[in-house]
Specification:
Layout: E1 10-13, E2 20-23, E3 29-32, H1 35-43
Antiparallel strand pairs: 1-2, 2-3
Length: 60
């Protein structure tokens, strides 16, 4: 049995569309209509993944 890696992959279906929106454990996001394309993108990490920019509060 393997131990958990702590990596979370999330795929949401956008209601009213055929679009899937995925978020990789690195924070990168991708949309596609084909579930196979979505999983290939996720499991291909880090190829094609640009981490989402971190949100920073203003320092004014």
């Amino acid at each position: 049995m393997s131990s958990p890696t702590g990596e979370i992959y999330r795929i949401d279906w956008l209601p009213g569309t055929d679009v899937l929106h995925g978020t990789c454990h690195c924070g990168a996001e991708h949309s596609a209509q084909d579930p196979v394309e979505m999983w290939e993108w996720m499991l291909g990490h880090p190829e094609g993944h640009e981490p989402a920019p971190e949100l920073r509060g203003s320092t004014s």
